[in-house]
Design goal:
- It is a single chain.
- With about 350 residues, the chain is mainly alpha-helical.
- The chain has two domains: about 180 residues, no CATH class; about 130 residues, MetI-like (MetI-like fold).
- About 65% of the residues lie in helices and about 0% in strands.
- The chain has 17 helices and two strands.
- Strands 1-2 form a two-stranded antiparallel ribbon.
- β1 and β2 form a beta hairpin.
- It is extended.
Length: about 350
């Protein structure tokens, strides 16, 4: 806990709190003569921002770093870490470059100078508060008191929140942004009920249906094809003496650990308008290049290739759980292959 406290106070007292302009550079922050006044205001640590520049919203961050110094208990570290992360996120969301993010706060608290994005100071402070939070949880017995394991889990969870949940939440909340002539709920309903989402023109001779129906169709097709292919490969591996079964098991793991864009990029390089297979087919069989890979068939193919390994891993366990004696009994009773499979 001492290391995390030292890191927190280092971030608050010595390291520039906001992201300095790239023209200044980190080393030029120590050269006061070469630093412009606006750069000096940005590069001041949080403690200086509070005392000299009157940025009062940074005060809760200092109090959260001070509390564990006065009370070295697991609860104090836990609450201080959670409070520091909460107030850090809160002030970042409510105060932007031009002051308050929401105009209602101008009426309640008055106009406010804006702030830049977090710099090294803010990043180190967030890391220190995460360390205090996980240290407090470990001392309370989480994961059998293993501080490193708790910190690792907390770090991974924080990355998921920052880079996945927060962007998704921001996108979802943007659907409720009120327009000039309607409220938030009315604007949300207008966006949700757009014809481009729910249109069924394709059933009446139109060019295409709405995106919701296209997504539903894609999900059904991908789920069906991935499940059937996964079942077929599982039967080959478990119920036959096919050579290379172990190699097939190893290959099925590769699409899971491979980034998703690799599958899409590979399909475009192979089957796109300038893809190698497309050019080969055009040269040998005079098949013209097209953009089918960018439509429903191409997305369906990419989804099938991506999710078949997952279906295979599930189906292998299912097939292994079925006793071969049941299959032998069905064959003895002259059941059809379809009846045996069911």
């Amino acid at each position: 806990s001492t290391v995390w406290l030292l890191l927190a106070w280092l971030a608050l007292a010595l390291v520039p709190w906001y992201a300095a302009p790239w023209s200044a550079g980190l080393l030029s922050l120590f050269d006061g003569a070469a630093m412009a006044p606006e750069t000096r205001a940005v590069a001041t640590p949080a403690l200086g921002q509070l005392i000299w520049l009157g940025r009062w919203w940074l005060l809760p961050l200092l109090l959260c770093a001070l509390w564990p110094v006065l009370r070295r208990t697991p609860n104090a570290m836990l609450l201080a870490g959670a409070g520091g992360l909460f107030f850090l996120a809160l002030q970042g969301l409510l105060i932007g470059l031009n002051g308050w993010t929401y105009t209602a706060f101008n009426t309640l608290f008055g106009p406010l100078d804006g702030q830049f994005g977090l710099g090294w100071g803010g990043a180190l402070y967030a890391l220190a508060m995460l360390g205090l939070l996980t240290q407090g949880l470990a001392r309370r017995g989480l994961l059998q008191g293993d501080a490193f394991a708790v910190w690792t889990v907390g770090f991974i969870v924080s990355l998921i929140v920052v880079f996945i949940l927060y962007p998704l939440g921001h996108i979802l909340l943007s659907a409720f942004e009120a327009s000039a002539d309607s409220g938030a709920l009315s604007a949300f309903w207008a966006r949700l009920s757009q014809n481009s989402i729910w249109s069924l023109d394709c059933l009446a001779g139109g060019r295409s249906c709405g995106s919701a129906w296209n997504s539903l169709l894609l999900a059904l097709l991908s789920g069906l094809s991935s499940t059937l292919l996964g079942l077929a490969f599982a039967l080959l591996v478990v119920r036959t003496a096919m050579p290379g079964r172990r190699a097939l098991r190893m290959l099925t793991v590769l699409p899971i650990v491979t980034p998703p864009f690799v599958v899409g990029l590979a399909l475009i390089l192979l089957l796109g308008r300038s893809g190698s297979i497309t050019q080969w087919l055009a040269m040998l069989f005079d098949i013209p290049a097209s953009r089918w890979i960018y439509g429903l068939p191409g997305i369906w193919l990419a989804q099938t290739l991506s999710f078949t390994p997952v279906a295979f891993l599930v189906m292998v366990g299912v097939v292994q759980g079925v006793s071969p004696a049941l299959e032998e009994a069905a064959q003895t009773l002259r059941a059809s292959r379809w009846a045996t499979l069911r």
